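User: Hey, quick favor. My workstation is busy. Could you predict this chain's structure for me?
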Amino acid sequence: MRFYPVPLMAVLLLLSFSLPAQQDSRYRLLLKSGTVIPDKNIDPETVSNFNRNALRSNGKASFVIQFERIPATEERNRLKQAGIELIDYLPDFCYTAIVGGSLDYTLLRQVNARAVMILKPEQKMQPELASGVFPSYAVKVAGTVDVWINFSPSFGFEEIKQALQADNFDLLSTSLKNYRIVEIRAAAGRLFTLASYPFVEYVQVAPGEDKPLSQFWTNWGKDAIRSNILGAPLSAGGKNLKGAGVTIGIGDDADPQIHIDFINRMIAKAAAPYNYHGTHVSGIAGGAGIRNELRTGMAPKSTLLSQVFSNVFTNAAAYTADHGMVITNNSYYSGYNQCDAFGYYDGYSRLLDQQAFLFPNLQHVFAAGNSGLFKCSPMPDSFRTVHAGYQSAKNVLTVANASPVGGIWRSSSRGPVRDGRLKPEIAAVGTFITATAPPPFDYYWENTGTSMASPAIAGGLALLYERFKQLNGNTNPKNGL
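Assistant: No problem, here it is.
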């Protein structure tokens, strides 16, 4: 019997190639532009090339560093002492980083660094921008596009402002600079130049204007919002919770303070008219039911702070300090309402996640959206329809609309979001809800949508917050938990 070594050699070669490939798959770098596996490149030549060629701003260069494993505290301290600052974690085993001097090959080996790489401009941009697809609302001047940039905390605002203005980029808004976000108008052909700056972490389309989330229905059923045990009197075996001493921020399109259900309980910050949507949402969260007790909101003795849409959370620093705001309700969205835009984690998502650390006693609640009738291939009908930005943040509660007879209402948005996280986290009945309304609706009217489900959760949280304070002897929400 003759022996044929070629098939055996082929198998051994395949095995020898597949084992490193399987090992390397642990080191995927998951970017919005796609997944890459950085080359294992910690050697003297690579480090020398980086030190010689890296683009710098005020002597600082940005890069991505990947480790064989997550670095220990001692290793982080050694990097910091050498002028290397680790900024944000990127899966897997990666960090964005800034170096003020030169990389040291020996140190990188000692801290188990696996790879260093400089991100390309297209890897630091929203994929649609990189491909030249600009939404119409972001093109206000022909040949330009309005964008947001996230800038690195290693650079001061004045530092990046001077660099951008010196290169003739127009700064449109700096209102979110404390969250490291600046709005810029850039020539469409210069977006790659903008993304190349070492201080620019990411470039995205500037979000569109906020829009309320609701669907109008009339002459249907009655509301199905209940908080029976929490709100029932003590004599009936309940907890008699009404939201007293709890401030809920309502970001919406109205200043509803003249409605009788909010007399002496509304902190009016909204420069807005007496609109339907915002008034209805406010009543679900905290209406007093003065003209009709059946229309009492979830937390009828809470204090409501009205503000226009996203201003309720962008002003969180002042509102938490001055008014003890601990919950916000947000029944609106920004940007596109179509499959290409759903579930996208953007600058607003990141801002809200930052606030989870800056204001640990503040909980944001967002309506998921009413786009459940969309068919976003390859997902089944209604899936991956949660709105981008606000609703896709990691540390907010995103709320679906439940049917009074069970299940999720057919128009309610649902996840997953783009990075695979499950959304929404919770559902409430927001179908056929009657609550406060301005003229000509005779004080109360009906509506359906996640806009109605979200304030039910926000109001319910106010009751739980009140109960928590009772149990812990904290009577002043300004003091936190």
